[in-house]
Amino acid sequence: MSKKTRLTFLYLLLTLSCAALFSSCGGSDNNTGNATVSAIADKVWAFSQNHPDGFTLDIRTMTEPQEGIAVSYAATQNSHSRSQLNDVVSHALQHDGYVGGWYNTDNQLYYFDSTRLFEENDLKSALLFGRENGQNSAFILSTHTEVPVSGSVATILERGTLLVGTTGDYRPLSFLEPATGEYWGFGIDVVQEIARYIGVGVSFVKTSWPTLSADVQAKPQIMDLAIGGITITDARKETMLMSEGYLANGKTILCRADEADRYQSLADIDKPEVRVMVNPGGLNEKFANEHLTHATIIVHQKNEEIPSLIAEGQADVMITEITEAPYYVKSDTRLAAPLLDRPFTHGRIGVLMPKGQDDLLQLVNNAIQQMKTDGTLRRLHEKYGLVYQ
Known about the structure:
13 helices, seven-stranded antiparallel beta sheet, elongated, 22 strands, D-Maltodextrin-Binding Protein, domain 2, about 40% helix, five-stranded mixed beta sheet, alpha+beta
């Protein structure tokens, strides 16, 4: 055998040996990787048996994140049972490290998804990712809230603004300053917090008490919700949605300070010689018509003008709310609210919106609950001189 032939033979032998060695090493790595995936999948499976109602799990630490927005990947859609869990875990390890799961009572199977987690202030991106991956919803972990990827909230996020109806005639809850065109008030601050929670700006839509219900339910829709001094009632909840209450409310009166002792009950007011002034279309007018059948009822179009008209003697009593009366007593020494601590009714003020926006209602309630928990709502009460209950 020539020298050249021997060298060629040795080269081929070395090449084949190395190939065999690398193949053996690669197989070892694959076996190790598969074993790791299977071991993690076993842990996820065991975890799922104790969490049939659903979970999102960080499989790198085997802990449940308490905050974030969980959205599933399309790649692992409809994976179920232990036999398909390895593929889900493998995908999760290559991407974000989260696996979601739940038990389907209809077919008695456990389902699993590789999951992506978004920051809770980035709902827009989470819903967009959900749509791109063929999902129906995203899940907010901290509040256990499911948000449809194509619902009312998604529309608001795409628009970038929350359309808010308000009357602008109800100090200190909602008032439109004529000189500046700016809205201010307790309700205005509350809705700004709600919009911040959702992650959008605010655009105000002028409404009025006589047209409030019609405006909220208008087609095509002109507002996402309405806020101000809107009392939660069964009648409103029959045709619209209302949030949980964020402010205590009740009917009371304003009168001239020098006549405060004259009005100590409804009976004192319900007399023909007493002129009672109300704004049209709201619960104040409804209350007056139902409970003051003998008094002289005067309907005045602009609610914000009535306190001054009472002070000037053009009427004797204004039917108002315990939220509104203190502001005018403080602003005008000619006025008094002698029954402020004895309101005729007791209720709560909430946010009003059209039916069919349950996803928005849930986020509004979440925002209100957060404001109660972190002290924001109490601080706003104090800012406007309102009693926190």
